[in-house]
Amino acid sequence: MPMSDTTPAILRSKLKEFFGFDSFKGDQLEIILHLCGGNDTFVLMPTGGGKSLCYQLPALVMPGTAIVISPLIALMKNQVDAIRGFISGNEGIAHFLNSSLGRSQTADVRRDLKSGVTKLLYVAPESLTKEENIAMLKEIPISFYAVDEAHCISEWGHDFRPEYRKIRTIIDDIQPAPVIALTATATLKVQSDILKNLRIPDAKVFKSSFNRPNLYYEIREKIEPEKDIIRFIRQNAGKSGIIYCLSRKKVEELSQLLNINGIKALPYHAGLDAKTRAENQDRFLMEDIDVIVATIAFGMGIDKPDVRFVIHYDIPKSLEGYYQESGRAGRDGKEGICITYYSYKDIRKLEKFMQGKPVAEQEIGRQLLDETMAYAESSQCRRKVLLGYFGEDYDRDNCGSCDNCLHPKPRFDGRKEMADVIRLVRDLPEHFKIEHIANILAGVDTAIIKSYRHDELEMFGAGREHSAKFWMTVIQQGLVLHFLNKEIETYGSISVSEKGLEFLENPHELMLVEERVFSDRDADDEDDDNEEAAAAAAMRGGGGDPTLLAMLKTLRKDLSRRLRLQPWIIFGDQSLDDMAISYPTTIDELRNCQGVGEGKAKKFGKEFVDLIAKYVEENDIIRPDDFVVKSIAGKSNNKVFIIQSIDRQISLEDIADAKGLDMDGLVSEIEAIVSYGTKLNLDYYINEHIDEAVVEDIYDYFRNEAESDSVDEAMKALGSDYYEMEIRLVRIKFLCEIAN
Fold it and tell me: How far apart are CA 656 and CA 160, in angstroms?
């Protein structure tokens, strides 16, 4: 039974008495009055908006016990401790009931419930299904049911839990009472699912703005992310932050790497035992550590107001997940920096994980991932894109607090180019990959194009005034805009959507980014592409010394002429950018710059550090603190094993098997080893597996034609007669013999 005297005045009095607040925030008072009136309620409120108070205060003033259904044990403990802190002297005022309790603790909970002492009972949906718990709850008066993190109900939500779909049936079995559903993030589709599944179609929906003006959003290209993260945290020393990774392995590795570089960090993931997870969480909340490195298992409902940054090492699987996780920054309304590292290769990996899953699950996952990719690659205001995803309009064109608004990208009207792409894809009798379509439009005469006789098509070379890379950029944006579809089962093949056909029928102004900032290439390949390196530097805030940078480029040019080597072989642009920021004056300092390593530092570095030292002295430059990233011993041991195995001329397949890697993973490890200056001799393997003429062609390309060590550029230049793995292996040979 709802209280009859829950007037605004009384509620304000209780707010001050229990929680110490003088006034309600936003819609809180209206929500509480509606619930206390015995009505079903649906609350959409961003992280930090005060959702918990919307059911905690009603529970304290209404007769009976409020049943709060919550997804995480850690969340329950946190909330119960908070309530007990507000209501001192009454430990029984709030309890949680879950599998972490022993027999005597469970008995204490049951006793307080039956005596009427407990006003809030937090329970996991799994515990709610147990017959003994249902029987007990039938015996006590229930004020209302609060379904926290209600987005877990929907398959379209970012944290779907099948147990949440059973909640309504269990509620009906126990006893009827009003329901309040609460979530910090839900699209219109998820909102509909929640209302339908909880069978509260007439619930009043209270929707606060999803805009968090204090948050800064930025997407960074995934080039040496560990080094970039360490640099960022050191620049924000003493501030509290969360780093999210998709895999447990990466959580452990990154946590360890931060610690050996002097940053107090702990891991958090489902693979740790419950005791360790709870201890690590508590140490973060108590500020014994500065950074928690976690999978998405961490953070739901964690009430830490002063998290100053949230970093996504991997691109999230959905925008809802991203919004929820990034929203844990700046809950106090003060500084909150949200940085996400993005590589299209990460998207490819997530797409591959979907293969083999049920078609319906693939379809949902693909659409969620498409939205995330659209956000990452969009040139629009990030705040506008995010709010639009949740059905909210943002009427400003420039928020002044995201990377796109602070560093606008050049755009052009690409309606003709997009129409050409759609027309070609529509008219092809079969579906092909992005590269193939781009090559047709650019008029690149590859062997595979000839084999399909696509060089005879009317559209062949229709856009030869642009490069294949340009057309790949247009196609990628067509995917983001949903004019084109990419099939998961036939990985990478492109088809035209209904929306694309509509655009072809009625083309309109279509502002496209002139050049994609993010590419499919490896980080090592990206370092030496002039324009993209500049874009990446701008995304990271740039800040290099332009005078010194010009001097370094002149020196590199002179050295390249003397040694008869192309400039990129000596040092890539990214390396020079880093030198212009950190002012290395010794070989040891130089080898810590991006893309340098021991070999290049020793081989080419002396003239560069001498120039920098002279420049620093003549201009009274105050250099930044030495920036050295220490490596993890385990990873070093892994590399030592690979180096020793290659020295013993063991086949690469056997080395990969010994370390649980596939060939792609092993070659990536070898590329990383070589990038740091170690010479490896793969001739024994290359001579056995690659035709001599092929080796000569690829080697000659890198020696005389290549403008960078990019594998993608090499594949485009050499054509489809050459396999990617062949190019990568010969590239390693070239770097070891010439560059290192």
Answer: 36
Of the candidate CATH numbers 1.25.10.10, 3.40.50.620, 3.20.20.70, 1.10.10.10, the domain formed by 411-513 belongs to 1.10.10.10
Most confident of 293-307, 409-423, 532-546, 705-719: 409-423
Can you tell me which residue has the tokens 């015995």? 38
Interstrand relation of 484-486 and 494-496 (parallel, antiparallel or unpaired): antiparallel
Whole-number average pLDDT of the chain: 82
pLDDT in tens, 9-47: 888 888 888 877 888 888 899 999 999 999 999 998 877
Which amino acid is it at 222? Answer: K
Q: 635, 647, 724, 686: which is closest to 345 by C-alpha?
A: 724
| DSSP conformational letter for 703 | I
Reported as a single tens digit per residue, the pLDDT across 331-349 is 888 899 999 999 877 887 7
| Assigned architecture for domain 215-406 | 3-Layer(aba) Sandwich (3.40)
Selection from 215, 161, 250, 247 nearest residue 330 by Cα: 215
Residues 323/186, Cβ–Cβ less than 8 Å: no
Q: Quick count: other Cβ atoms within 10 Å of Cβ 91?
A: 14
Q: What topology does CATH give the domain 523-618?
A: DNA polymerase; domain 1 (1.10.150)
- Residue 446 CA, chain-centre distance (Å), reads 36
- 556 Rama sector, left if φ>0, alpha if ψ -120 to 50, beta otherwise: alpha
Amino acid of residue 539 = M
Strand partners, 94: 120
Written out in words, the top-level CATH class of the domain with range 633-739 is mainly alpha
CA dihedral 237, 240, 245, 247 (to 10 degrees): 100
Contact residues for 6 (Cβ-Cβ < 8 A; gap 6+): 32, 33, 36, 37, 58, 61, 62
Mean pLDDT, residues 89-102 taken together: 79
453: region left, alpha or beta (phi > 0 left; psi from -120 to 50 alpha): left
Count of CB atoms situated within 10 Å of the CB of 354: 18
Side chain identity at residue 702, one-letter code: F
Look at residues 225, 285, 287 and name the one whose alpha carbon lies nearest to residue 258: 225
pLDDT (mean) for 620-648 = 69
Check for a shared fold between 523-618 and 633-739.
no
Dist. CA 611–CA 552, nearest whole Å:
8
Give the pairing of strands 511-513 and 411-413.
antiparallel
DSSP line for 504-517: HHS----EEESS-S
A 10 A CB-CB count for 457 gives 16
Count other Cβ atoms within 10 Å, centred on residue 377. Answer: 20
Q: Left if phi > 0, otherwise alpha if psi is -120 to 50, otherwise beta: which for 567?
A: alpha
Encoded tokens for 170: 């269990």
Q: Where are the domains of the chain?
A: 8-207, 215-406, 411-513, 523-618, 633-739
**Closest by CA position to 477, among listed 563, 596, 380:** 380
Condensed to tens digits (0 to 9), the pLDDT of residues 534-548 reads 333 333 334 467 888
- For the domain covering 8-207, report its CATH number: 3.40.50.300
Contacts of residue 457, Cβ cutoff 8 Å, sequence gap at least 6:
424, 440
Q: Which of 252, 251, 242 is nearest to 304 (CA)?
A: 242
* CB burial readout 302-333, b (16+ within 10 A) else e: bebeebbbbbbbbbbbbbbbbbbbbbbbbbee
CA-CA distance, 72 to 83, in Å (whole number)? Answer: 17
Helix, strand or coil, per DSSP, at residue 143: strand
